[in-house]
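User: Predict the structure for this protein chain, please.
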Amino acid sequence: MVTLTDKALIDRVKLGDEAAFEYLLERYEPFVAKIARSYFIDGFEREDLFQIGTASFYRAVLTYSEEIDSTFYAYALSCVRNEFVSMCRKHLAQDEYVMLYEDMAMVMEAQGMYTAPTSVLLDEVDNPILHQYRLDLKALLAEDSFLSELEKACLEQFAYNLGRIEIAEKLNVDIKRVDNALTRIRIKLRKRAP
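Assistant: Here is the predicted structure, written as structure tokens:
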């Protein structure tokens, strides 16, 4: 198999030849490992990241076609990098969500409006504590001078567990405007905290 081209190996992988994939992975493993080593994501060990890179590489092998205006090398490494970038964005978005949620909880708790739930409750839509939190949040939104109209709209959607992309789509605004509004809200909430 040493003499087989990438295309020949890819064709064999698509027919179910596991040995062809192993050889192709061996050929590209240093590049996949290098990309995996360049990322740090909380909760993931180096071996986990390498496995994610390998899985992404496998998907690249299965989806590659000569009709793509790129070499397999460029396509595969782009797929692996994109997987890590996507993971980082999701991880950062989750962290941002938790930080904003905790900032709002801190302000409301300081005002005697609310006892902060644990982050486990974030996805529990029918939880009575989270329901009360949302009611208290609506009271905060009713204050005229605290938030701009866009900030209020973003915060209201955020309170119902919508992510940044979903908020941008729902409000028909650019995602960057949503990011900026959520950042301004966090800053205002921190300034307001005693």
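The chain has two domains: 6-88, 111-192.
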